[in-house]
Amino acid sequence: MMPSPSQARFAAETLPELSALLGERIVTSHAVREQHSHGEGMPDSVLPDAVAFALTTEEVAAIAAICNRTSTPLIPFGAGSSLEGHVVPLYGGVALDLSGMTRIVEINADSMDCRVEAGVTKEQLNEELRASGLFFPVDPGAHATLGGMAATRASGTNAVRYGTMRDVTLGLTVVTPDGRIIRTGGRARKSSAGLDLTRLYVGSEGTLGIITEVALRLSGIPESITSAICQFPDLESAVATVIAALQIGIDVARIELSDDMQMRACIRYSKLEGLDELPTLFFEFHGTPAVVAEQVETMQALASENGGEGFKFANRPEERSRLWTARHNAYFANIAMMPGHKLLGTDACVPISKLAACIEATQRDIAESGLVAPLVGHVGDGNFHLGILFDPEKADQRRAAEALASRVSLRAIEHGGTCTGEHGIGIGKMGYMETEHGPALDVMRAIKAALDPNGIMNPGKMLPEARKEH
């Protein structure tokens, strides 16, 4: 097969410069390119022309300058755990792997903050923090890098108490598309100086620049931690318990919902004992022993009022770890439930007052679709997920899966929510951006054009092209 004009130009112009800069860390083997052709979401993939493994911010800046000068697409890549096609190199180019940038630059225990390189994972950071009495609370479940978590504005099970990456990111080191290195934000807990560039880049999904360092707010490890599970006769009762708990101000650290199908998958995959295939709430409470005891007592009363039974507690670290590992492995549990099927994961987030109606309507949609689609959610902040399973050999099943996911997104927007509370836009959710943002989408496009005039940064993601008037 003859190379395309863009591939020939890459080989003639871009690759020699990158090879001179990186040596063996610019890779064109099929196996490595294939590893960087997709994330963990839908099975679609596109091979990059090469994979660059950067080790310093200065190297990233040099790579960006070369790609910008030769109009070569540049796709930042961390752990590859994104679910909406964020890392698929739609137009070839260079997949920029930052996973080797694993230096913890500084930890300031007294100020409860730190600065890390983009390839550091949350697990690596928390292991380093263990002796300091601090921890990093954002926990999306995936084995993700902190640079990737900032780029996708990640969230997770602790968000109801500790917030998302938007809330804990104090500042960034960013390489612009033309190779400049800039610092945004700072260590001060508040500032009124200039535009908030940190918030601009957090959640930009690699479309505006490359995040190479992240300054983060840390939290103290709670004196007492208790996890618990409670099962309910139906989803409505479980959701009613969540809403009641939030309305009376129980400061729960985690509150997760799994429907009966999700519990079936988790019980089998994680070998959970003593649980039924019923809608289930997972809780975690942080604080002093007295505060935790009070929270648990109140939550038990609320659950009981809504038909919840069989509160099971996990106080020892290994018990809590097993419980939350089972929750975090829901994605893999779903895939294992139907071998040979693919999983289309989608999420939505709505105001708490609309959560019950949204989940009820979604359950009806699942039943009508004829597909298996376990539901799980960080319901403390109105966020829920579907793992829609379909046979990739049957085109009608994929269409049905995509239609089901579309209805979830549009319904969330109609209820004053968003088409994604966590996963981000990538490729998969671009079709809902205009519905959700309206004329504000043109402002986003203007920012993209101003910061990346050659359009090299993760092209074809997040921002759909403007419709042409005829």
Explain what the structure shows.
The mean pLDDT is 93. α10 (260-270) packs across α13 (330-337) and α14 (352-369) packs antiparallel against α15. It contains 17 helices and 18 strands. With 470 residues, the protein is an alpha+beta fold. It is globular, with a radius of gyration of 23 Å. A hairpin with a 4-residue loop joins β17 (375-378) and β18 (383-390). The chain has helices spanning 5-22, 30-35, 57-69, 122-129, 146-151, 159-162, 165-168, 197-201, 235-247, 260-270, 289-305, 317-328, 330-337, 352-369, 395-414, 433-437, 440-451; strands at 26-27, 50-53, 74-77, 94-97, 104-108, 113-117, 134-135, 169-175, 181-185, 210-217, 219-220, 224-231, 254-258, 280-287, 309-314, 342-349, 375-378, 383-390. The strands form 4 sheets. Strands 15-12-14-13-17-18-16 form a 7-stranded antiparallel β-sheet, sandwiched between helices. It starts with a helix and ends in a 19-residue tail after the last helix. The longest helix has 20 residues, at 395-414.
Outline the fold blueprint:
Layout (H helix, E strand, L loop, with lengths): L4 H18 L3 E2 L2 H6 L14 E4 L3 H13 L4 E4 L16 E4 L6 E5 L4 E5 L4 H8 L4 E2 L10 H6 L7 H4 L2 H4 E7 L5 E5 L11 H5 L8 E8 L1 E2 L3 E8 L3 H13 L6 E5 L1 H11 L9 E8 L1 H17 L3 E6 L2 H12 L1 H8 L4 E8 L2 H18 L5 E4 L4 E8 L4 H20 L18 H5 L2 H12 L19
Parallel strand pairs: 2-4, 3-4
Antiparallel strand pairs: 1-2, 5-6, 6-10, 7-11, 8-9, 8-10, 12-14, 12-15, 13-14, 13-17, 16-18, 17-18
Helix pairs in contact: 1-3, 9-11, 9-14, 10-13, 14-15
